[in-house]
Amino acid sequence: MKRLACAVLVLLAGALALAAAEPPVRLRIVKPAAGQPVFGDVEVEVAVEPPGAAVAKVEIYLDGKRVGAADAPPYRALVNAGQDNVEHHFEAIAYGAKGPIATTEARTPSIATDLEVKVELHQSFVTVEKGGVPVKDLTKEDFDLYDDGVHQTIVSFERGDVPFNAVLLLDASTSMKGGRLQTALDGAKAFAGAISPQDQVKLILFSDQVRVETPFTSIPSVLTLSLGDAKAGGGTALNDCFYLALKRLETRRGRKVAVLLSDGIDVESVLPMERLRKLARLHSVTLYWLRMRDPGDDDSVPVRHFTSWRNGSAHKVELEALRHIVDESGGRIIPLDRIEHVHATLTNLLGELRNQYVLGYYPGAARGSGKWHKVRIQVKGGGTVRAHEGYPEP
């Protein structure tokens, strides 16, 4: 009997020693930063300490309501804090195999003001470069932002890995035969495999009609599920399908991006280019055009394409209109002289999106619904700034 009691004591002592050797799990809300007022779409990020702790999942709550969960690091969720100038309560709960094991909370303040005017927070998504190289270490104080010429106070500031909604619009017309389409799809698959769990991406394959359309998802296999039998063929209804891509982004929250892979020549569309411009401006979609070109082609070469209703000069006017839409959206045109460059180009583009800054402010002067606001952004110390040139007032 004494031997049994001794054995039990030894086992208890070992269990206690093991428990003492394992530090307790602690949580910390990394984003939003302490003391930072929040509005609109907000990324919540929770750190688990020590790293590698046995955590089954982390739930995230906003003002008492469960708004997200993650079962693996990074523990993040994109939530909507609304547009009201109020305090918010964030809470995170970590679960182990048998239930809750740790919790933490954070409160964000409202903006102190003597006179509160209920206006919408406006966000500008900004890329900054020097000598073609992204500038990644800027702070809120490095930016000067003007709305209709009036200097604005930046009330929210994010940088780095900010989630986005994107549509990849890939040309699958006859010009993509001979292995070109498959090479482009391989690049799209690589892009899908590198996105964050918080990103949402849709793929649209088009020619003179929509050939394949996936749902918005962050799961790479869902994006590529229907692409195995894709074949090139047919004409190009670029305007119509680009318009569809913008409509799909219309109801999405947060950062919106559309990426077009095409030579830009439209031969089948019903919609004019101006309809695309209005929709892109209305919903602040950043556009990127991966422009496929034949070797030796550049902007000084006349467009060698003719249809029964549009000659080469008219096609060039359409291309210039597309170029203008891309430029004013804050995106850019990336020439592709070889289809093999698609993979690397999309990878670089994803890196560019990861390095954008998000500047939030309340426009000081209301002009009325639908009125255009001209936005100008400068960086102290210089640099090339790309952002939306403006927005229509809600």
Question: Secondary-structure map with pairings?
Answer:
Blueprint: H1 2-21, E1 26-31, E2 41-49, E3 57-62, E4 65-70, E5 75-80, E6 88-96, E7 99-108, E8 122-130, E9 133-134, E10 143-147, E11 150-151, E12 154-159, E13 164-171, H2 180-194, E14 200-206, E15 210-213, H3 220-224, H4 238-249, E16 255-262, H5 273-282, E17 285-292, H6 312-328, E18 332-336, H7 342-354, E19 357-361, E20 372-379, E21 384-386, E22 390-392
Parallel strand pairs: 13-14, 13-16, 16-17, 17-18
Antiparallel strand pairs: 1-2, 2-5, 3-4, 3-6, 6-7, 8-9, 8-19, 8-21, 10-11, 10-20, 12-19, 14-15, 20-22
Describe what this molecule looks like in 3D:
The protein is α+β, with helices and mostly antiparallel strands and 394 residues long. The protein folds into 3 domains: 85 residues, Immunoglobulins (Immunoglobulin-like); 76 residues, no CATH class; 191 residues, von Willebrand factor, type A domain (Rossmann fold, 3-Layer(aba) Sandwich), CATH 3.40.50. Helix 2 links the parallel strand 13 and strand 14. Helix 2 runs parallel beside helix 7 and helix 4 runs parallel beside helix 5. The longest helix has 20 residues. It is globular, with a radius of gyration of 25 Å. The N and C termini lie far apart (82 Å). The relative contact order is 0.15. The N terminus is likely disordered.
